[in-house]
Amino acid sequence: MEQFDSLFKIEDIFALWLSTVGLERETMRITEDGDLATTPHPKALGNRSFHPYIQTDFAESQLEFITPPYESSETLINWLSGIHQVAYQVMESDNEYFWPLSTPAYVPEDRDSIKVAQLDNEVERGYRTHLAAYYGKDVQLISGIHYNFQINPEVLKRKQPESMDRVSFMNAIYSKLGRNYLRYRWILTYLMGASPYIADNYATELYGKPHKRMMRSFRQSRYGYQNKADVYVRYDSLEHFIEDLEQAVASGQLSVEKELYRDVRFRRGNPYRELLQKGVSYLEFRNIDLNPFATYGIEQGDIDFIKLFIITLLYLPDVETNEAVDKGNTYNFQTAEADPTDLPIDMDEIRQFLGKMKTLATTLDRNRPQKASLINLIESKEAMIDRPDLTLAGRIIEACPSPSDFLAFGIDLAKDYRELYQDKPYLLHGFEQLELSTQDVLKEALIAGIEFDVVDTTGNLIRLEHDDHVEFVKSANMTSHDTLISYYLMEDKVVTKKLLADVGVRVPAGVSFKNPDEAKAYFPQIEYSAFVIKPKDTNFGLGITIFTERPSQSAYDEALKLAFAEDDTVLVEEFVQGTELRFYVQDGSTRAVVERQPAQVVGDGKHSISELIDIENTNPLRGERHLAPLTYIEKGSAERLQLSEQNLDFDSIPAEGEIVYLRRNSNISTGGVSIDRTDAAHSSYHRIAEHSAEALGANFCGVDIILTDYSQEARFDNYAVIEANFNPMITLHRHPGRGQAHRVGRDVLKQLFPEVAFSTEGHFIG
Amino acid sequence: MEQFDSLFKIEDIFALWLSTVGLERETMRITEDGDLATTPHPKALGNRSFHPYIQTDFAESQLEFITPPYESSETLINWLSGIHQVAYQVMESDNEYFWPLSTPAYVPEDRDSIKVAQLDNEVERGYRTHLAAYYGKDVQLISGIHYNFQINPEVLKRKQPESMDRVSFMNAIYSKLGRNYLRYRWILTYLMGASPYIADNYATELYGKPHKRMMRSFRQSRYGYQNKADVYVRYDSLEHFIEDLEQAVASGQLSVEKELYRDVRFRRGNPYRELLQKGVSYLEFRNIDLNPFATYGIEQGDIDFIKLFIITLLYLPDVETNEAVDKGNTYNFQTAEADPTDLPIDMDEIRQFLGKMKTLATTLDRNRPQKASLINLIESKEAMIDRPDLTLAGRIIEACPSPSDFLAFGIDLAKDYRELYQDKPYLLHGFEQLELSTQDVLKEALIAGIEFDVVDTTGNLIRLEHDDHVEFVKSANMTSHDTLISYYLMEDKVVTKKLLADVGVRVPAGVSFKNPDEAKAYFPQIEYSAFVIKPKDTNFGLGITIFTERPSQSAYDEALKLAFAEDDTVLVEEFVQGTELRFYVQDGSTRAVVERQPAQVVGDGKHSISELIDIENTNPLRGERHLAPLTYIEKGSAERLQLSEQNLDFDSIPAEGEIVYLRRNSNISTGGVSIDRTDAAHSSYHRIAEHSAEALGANFCGVDIILTDYSQEARFDNYAVIEANFNPMITLHRHPGRGQAHRVGRDVLKQLFPEVAFSTEGHFIG
User: Fold this and answer.
1) Looking at the record, which segments are called Glutamate--cysteine ligase (chains A, B) (predicted)?
2) Which residues of B touch A489 (CB under 8 A)?
3) A2-37+93-421 maps to CATH 3.40.50.720
4) Which residues pair with A458 in a beta bridge?
5) Does the distance separating the beta carbons of B483 and A483 come in below 8 Å?
6) Which value does ipTM take for this structure?
7) CATH number assigned to the domain covering B509-574
8) pTM of structure
9) The domain A512-568: what is its CATH number?
10) Residue of A nearest to B454 (CA)
11) How far apart are CA A335 and CA B103, in angstroms?
């Protein structure tokens, strides 16, 4: 296959760098003591067999986190961080941690307590039982990273020789890449092998107890996932590989094809023979140890490093022969079983390889001025060549010099990471650039196993997919279930009122004027004593005057002047007094109701208002404006003014139970608080909100109702609908300041994907 | 019923003025010679029996135009003008006019040639045949205005005495109003009677040939619509009225209840007895003659005048008795049969009545500073009290002193009006404040008999209704058939491209940058030789640079600088050369295709470019920007520059057939021209446009495709979709500068109202 040795030119590196990577990270769920967790797989995730992101591997307590493929390592880390967070939020017990290393520090003496994953599929359960008997259960406690790599298809399209068909070309390229990887992967093992310790009582059926207490990587040694030595498959061609594999299964050396444990898997053929028709689609590299110093098991830089390592293999000559592959396997075993302090087995080879990588990195770096330098990354690896203490295994034994401290070392890290995973539970970690509400919908999708992608971050536009059903969602609840026209009906407040009045919903009476003279002349005709004068479109309340009793003509004229200064259309509208409630309607039913109240503190007879604000600001729901469900209460001039109107200042000490308001307006963004009133509001208002949404043809609708008393049934004169919003905030209901939370983000998904079985079991904190 | 005599206070006039009026205007279709038109009712209107706006009355050639009820006389006139225009545009023959007077100037000697309306309903046809036999066909040639009046229901709600139920109150109020109207309507007849002549050979079965050749109003005389004298109904109560009417039918004096010809009809009961349960809903006043000096049969001022006349009747004491009604009838006959030069029959009564009206008008005027003065209107009528020559009948005989000129007088007016009706056929007269495209949809609705209302003029938001099916439409094709999310998918051009590329539609390759350094560094990676650098959102082409061959890095950097000055996101995009075509897709199929070309003239070897522009600007499709399908070509600096680039100026005389472009851009708003390419464009592009719309989930979609040659099948490299628009202009296709027009506005309605049988017959010019 030397025909490919000069297939890629240096300038192809840009396109090759756009190749995609998908990661799988395994981890054991453990208790505080290091015991395997005995709780079941989180029930909130529904049926694990179909979950795209969170599955179990061998053992019931072994989680497998799966990212979709992306070009960017930053995106992959974001996904890992989101999945880790969610996995924690749906955990069945409070006392659980993710073991951060590839090898177990503790194996229960009673091996029967290691439960095989409770999968629905009987064949899969049977297979796992066979593995446990044949290889031993201990080896199944080992976790790692699987690194899936697909060469940018655009490059392959361009490089395909005329003499070859697509499938032959793909298979030839990918089998070259597989061979070269097997030949040189020992370099990765040297640099990133990270399982120098293992539980004392660990043993495998094939190789017994380890012959050493410490090595660079137990996981990649003979004590990791290994078939019997007599299983041999050739890698010099895909045809040979498949032939040998089929022979091994036919002879009973392997129970099924996937029982072949090798560090390279050709993907998208089952059985493998299909690859000869379909072509290899991507490779799965299975030899990466978990990095205990990385919050999510792998550092972003290492994702890039491995990617460039793989791309470099494409530029290198094809090693071609089985002998070369065998040599690579031997090198890798030796490297894995060496002491973490040993130097690399072949200093020249590693130095030359990193040198080749640097050539590519130099070119790439030139065109990514804003990104972390790849050259620096490789140089940091180069430094490890004669400094084994800088390698991952070296760093672990430095941090934890004695095998007997291994358990404590891992648990300490696990506890640190758990704190990170549990930080700001209302966010979806890794997706913080999106609005809170979109993060919430994505988190619900992640839990429900609906695949998603962010199409446009600043636009909060996401794509959701389940099987072949695709839905787009903008800003959490703008979907295919609302019509374009309903948007315009709600956007224009005058139109909204007209349509609601038409169906008998009470709205504040009012008239709009484009002409100041006409508006003035209208004064004698005003029939309501309390009314408001406002510009048609208003921001921040500018130009609004409220009259609670009938004003003089001159006061009225003055108010008109203020309003006309803001807009060319001015409304004279009945002023309805009362409490304003937001009704969140979806698909014809009111899902949640909140009252918004101004920023406030409750006195305790001891603390000053200033201190009470500080205390309230420690509420974990509070944060910077728009970045948290509630906003920090400020001590600014607006608050000072509001206090002084009550003859108070920041040093006043309110009596116990006394509520002190710090703002006149109830916006969440100025410290206001939302209070759930879903059950408290009389059902007649629920019906009015639903009726309003229907009149506007709205599927998602936030109906604002002013009412005298939400516990009393609606009559004609005790309420008015003042607004209907086409993109109602879901955070108000998802994370109310007080009262019951409602998973309205999940409701969005339920309507979009009625075919998905949303779990009704388990729980979810976040 | 004197209990109501002081029911209304002076301040109630504002609310009473919000009462609604609906108009019906009848007219005979005639030929240039004054003959009755022999063509059928316009087939394009579909089944007339259900048409809300354009029907036939008695004769096949008698049109009846019906407006919906509105508060404002301006709106009513607008509706009349739209209906008149449309009725002309669907006429079956070019040689037809609307006879502008109430009485015919010509009655065919062969009465059989007066065809009864060819209605589907057999009973209705039979009824008309009976009328023709009983009253004679001549009387059926008489036309007029019916004035429907509903008291503002809000006022009635407020005024309803506690002692009365709603139905009794409505019936009491409306029967008082009916009585009073009958008592005083002679005043209207004096002022506005307008049928002083009638055809020589005109005769009725009941009263024979008129005894005079000229009177104030033949239509309201005994020679108009009159029952036999022995038909007598009491008006002193609704119960009496119904009793007498039923008796007249039972005794055979009348064939059916509606054969009772009286100037007041109680509406919304059939049979009338239903009114006793349901309550009168409004009154129909049937005594208004057509005003031949008014383009649409009635002046806007007279709509207001009659309204105030009616409201005044509500303020006046109830005349109560049948004797008073009889007196009113007598007065009215006498007024109608008087000479047009005679003074009013009761000078005091008319003076007092108008005086009372002035009191109300004074109050109203104070609060309508922007509207025409009602006081002036009444004063102009007051002037007629001792100047019969100023009344309508007086003016007619002044303009046409001899009965023998009556036919010519009417035809001259009819011709003038036809010219007005035919002006700017692409508009919907009376609705010119809306966008052209919305006018077109409304016009199609008017033709199809779908009821409509303008909800918001500046927003181009309309409401359509057929039976109980309601649809809202904004800007002609934003409807309930598009989803809110598809709007956002099309709004973001980057997202659009992404989604189209995903489904295999070719879009210009490209990358977007937020960072100038990254954009600069990208230069070596650009793989296409021709490309464009542009701000993500651009207006008027600012910041765009097109490279048709590979530039230097410094030229590239300079172009980036220009683009980043306009937007914080800049696209580097493949530049696809070719012709740009707009594909208008609806509901999965391409309905029309146009090419837009820059403003241009074609030489004739004689005229200068300046003269050719003048000639082109006489094209009736051209007008002011956005107010006509095409825009006047200017002779400004942009045009001068474009000419000078071709070494031409405005005085150059291009050779015959030579096309001279006056602009670089092809926007219609700068004189560009749209050319229909629906059939010319290869069907493969139709499919690509449809596929693109589908990928975006768009029902209405304007897909812009750049292509090398529209007659050649699409391959991967000869086209690119550059944009998809969620609100594609329909005027481009409806009124292309050249080629086939497509009624895409009608297609909108067809999809919204699949249950409506759109006529496939007849034709439509406009």
Assistant:
1) 1-336
2) 461, 472
3) no
4) none
5) yes
6) 0.88
7) 3.30.1490.20
8) 0.92
9) 3.30.1490
10) A495
11) 113
